[in-house]
Design brief:
Shape: flat
Mean pLDDT: 82
Structural class: alpha+beta
Helix content: 10-25%
Radius of gyration: 22 Å
Distance between the termini: 50 Å
Number of strands: 15
Number of helices: 7
Largest sheet: 6 strands, antiparallel
Strand content: 25-35%
Length: about 270
């Protein structure tokens, strides 16, 4: 498992192994390791690979699919009660007999907005738990009394990435459709880099819907319907076809989307 953490290109290692030992590395691993150990081995490789999408091996591709826990900016909601931890270690369970130095910070309730995925992920091999790091920043202005003491502060947690425990969303609307009460909370909790753009002092071009319209995903497929005068995101560019012109923009949760140019307006901020 220690070696797995150092492998960044499984295909190159497998080819070298073949030259050295005239044997198939994947077959040897499967014969030497249990099913659980083999999956842990592949997951550790996938986590350590800088460009896992380019690997051609079917085994590493499968591991990569399982290891992409949450991309940066995805919004994370607790489906059931789940521990928020200071480290990616599932050894502690909040029992009264466990030491006070355990890594449990608190417990999120079902339906609670936890924050935004930072893009960092870890795999607890001892307990076979995949973790994602989640964080948020409390805005500095227009806060109710309950939040004022937290203004401008940042928080990060580690949480199990299992779909049994969390829901992950790229866009606000589907999250609010399932958890309507979160609309009043999310406006105070923003991504950790929320104020970074303001520090740069650069102006932004913002994309706003001029009518009820449909937003397209990164592959130009219908994604979600939005109402007139909805702030969609930051302008990134455009694409002209023989029939239509499309505008590309980045949403507040750092996801790229498209919209028909005839349905939007661009404003300077």
């Amino acid at each position: 498992m220690s070696t797995a953490k150092k492998i960044t290109n499984f295909d190159k290692v497998a080819k070298s192994y073949k030259k050295l030992y005239d044997s198939d590395l994947t077959a040897d691993l499967q014969s030497e390791l249990t099913t659980d150990e083999y999956q842990k081995f592949l997951t550790l490789i996938a986590l350590n690979s800088p460009n896992t999408s380019s690997t051609s091996s079917s085994t590493t591709s499968a591991a990569t699919t399982n290891a992409v826990f949450a991309k940066k900016g995805q919004m994370i909601v607790a489906k059931k009660e789940v521990f928020l931890r200071s480290s990616a270690d599932a050894s502690y369970h909040g029992a009264f007999y466990e030491t006070s130095t355990n890594n449990i910070i608190s417990k999120a309730k079902a339906g609670e907005f936890i924050g935004y995925a930072t893009g960092k992920q870890e795999y607890d091999t001892e307990n076979n738990v995949k973790f994602i790091q989640v964080g948020f920043l409390v805005v500095k202005e227009n806060l109710p009394d309950l939040f004022k003491s937290f203004a401008g502060k940042k928080y990060t947690f580690w949480i199990s990435s299992s779909s049994d425990y969390v829901d992950k969303y790229d866009y606000f609307k589907p999250m609010f459709d399932k958890y309507p009460s979160l609309a009043s909370v999310v406006k105070y909790k923003k991504p950790l880099d929320y104020y970074d753009a303001e520090v740069s002092g650069l102006s932004k071009r913002l994309v706003v819907s001029s009518k009820n319209m449909q937003v397209l995903d990164s592959n130009m497929h219908p994604y979600v319907n939005v109402e007139k005068q909805t702030l969609l995101g930051e302008y990134l560019g455009e694409l002209n076809t023989s029939k239509n012109r499309f505008i590309k923009f980045r949403t507040v949760d750092n996801t790229e989307r498209w919209a028909d140019a005839s349905n939007i307006k661009i404003i300077e901020r």
